[in-house]
Write the structure tokens for this entry.
Amino acid sequence: QPDAAIFGEKDYQQLLVIKQMVSDHDMGIEILQGTTLRETDGLAMSSRNAYLNDHQRKTAIHLNKIMRDLCNDYHSAQELNRLPSLEEEAIQKLLETGFTEIDYLTVRDADTLQLPNTETKNLRLLAAVRLGKIRLIDNCAV
């Protein structure tokens, strides 16, 4: 049995599920969180990136930028009630940029993945989008 395992935060939901499972089953394994590695243009590194054609690759880089814009807009406002409209604006920007489908783009409590409330300390922006048949995921701290 290992003493520790490293999981990347690129698939943030999976990371939280594994942490919870290890805790629930008292497995005695330390789960370490690895940062998301990014291409020089900001796209999260993934084996799926190899399937993107040139046009899709140019579109894909907008995901991280639009996510960062949402985070910056939230930090300017600091109002939880603005999150739904900021999320909707980001979704529209993604579609206008050329993403073919948005599975989700949502800000959640970073510890529970529940919708945030006034007690929430840490927020996480989670996204899953499609370019044709290729599904890309990304996330970032808000």
